[in-house]
Each structure stands twice: as structure tokens, then as C-alpha cells.
Amino acid sequence: MRLPRRTVGAAEVLGVLLVFSLLACGCAREVEREPDPTDFAGWMERAKRGDVNAEYNVGVMFLSGNGVERDPRQAAQWLAKAAMKGDADAEYNLAVMYLAGEALPKKEQEAVRLFHLAARGGCVEAQRTLGLLYYRGTLVGRDCKKAVNWLSLAAADGDAVAQYHLGDCNYVGFGVEKSREQAIINTWYGGEMKKGMFSMQNYYL
119 and 130 in contact (C-beta within 8 Å)? Predict the structure, then answer.
């Protein structure tokens, strides 16, 4: 079980800006049940044994105050342990903490580095965030091709914010061939217009 990632909105980012295998030497054994999402002691026990999923969950619990008193410093320590093992969600959370200067020194370039690692690891929120950073030229040089690349990956996974901004790129020809039709497709399916915001539909039409 994975606890939810800490989400970061576009405004927050640009405002500077979250079991299983049964293998046992040829013989089956009972699968250990996962702790309840709020069972901090259970997750901590696993985390101390080096379980990367538990390390991530303990970090998120300390960060959110879910099941334990909120402690961002402890959160950063456990998320760092998971990130060192290549956990993309942990890398994303650490990036947000570095960007905000929460319990960690405010290091924008370290945040960008971690966003890249998390995005390459398949974290959709990191892919969307990088797309927006490159789209706006915030913290990184404005790069239309990189913006479209990261937004496309997030949009393909159903991220509505990425789909909307990818549609905007199509509409103005930013990093892709200008296409009003593609802009409408990218924003309609999963974007803001699908939610009934017809003013966006009128904007493109």
C-alpha cells in the first residue's frame, strides 16, 4: 500500500515559485499483512528493516501528520532513505520540500534535479511539474521541446493540467506544429472543458 503523494499545484511550483511477492525457497509461506494506513508503528517496524515502501510511507506520515505527530525533519530523513533506493514518489516529495525550504535548506536546483529523477521514474506529478517549469521558464531555461515532452508523458497518464497546457502548446505552436484541432482534443479529453468549463471551449473555438 502506498500513501498518497504530497501534491503540489502549478501555482505553488511556479510561484518562486505515494506488496506482495510470495517467494519462499520452493515452499509457500503466509504473506505478511500490510499495516493499516494509519498504523504508524507497523509501518515504522517495516521501515527499520529497510522496506523502501515503508520508508516512503513513514516519511509521508511524518509529513502529513497522519497517524503520528507531524515532523517535517523526520519526514525528510525517511523520504531521503527511500529516494536513495530510487523511489520516484519519495524523490518528488523531497523536491517539493527543497523547493519550499520546508525542513530542508531552500535549494531550487536540487529540487529540479529531484523532479527530473522522479519524472524519469514515472512519477506523473513530477512530469507535469517539469513540463510547467520548462513551459514558463521558471527555475530552468524556457524550452518548448522539453516542455512538450514532459507534458505529453503526464497527459498520456490522464493528468488534466498537463493535457490543458499541452493543448495550449498545440494552439500557439509552442514546441509542436500549430494545430487548433489538436488543441481542442488535448484539452477536451481530460482537460478543463470536460469538466464543463465551456468558456475554455469558446476560447479555442
Answer: yes
pTM > 0.85: yes or no: no
Buried b (16+ CB within 10 A) or exposed e, 94-122: bbbbbbbeebbeeebebbbebbbbbbebe
Residue 29 has pLDDT above 60, yes or no: no
What distance in Å separates the CA atoms of residue 15 and residue 38, rounded to the nearest whole number? 32
Could you give the C-alpha distances from 170 to 87, 117, 134, 182, 188, in angstroms and in order?
A: 33, 27, 15, 6, 13
Buried b (16+ CB within 10 A) or exposed e, 169-205: bbbeebbbeeeeebbbebbbebbbbeeeeeebbeebe
Statement: residue 32 has pLDDT above 80: no
Distance CA 58, CA 78 (A): 7
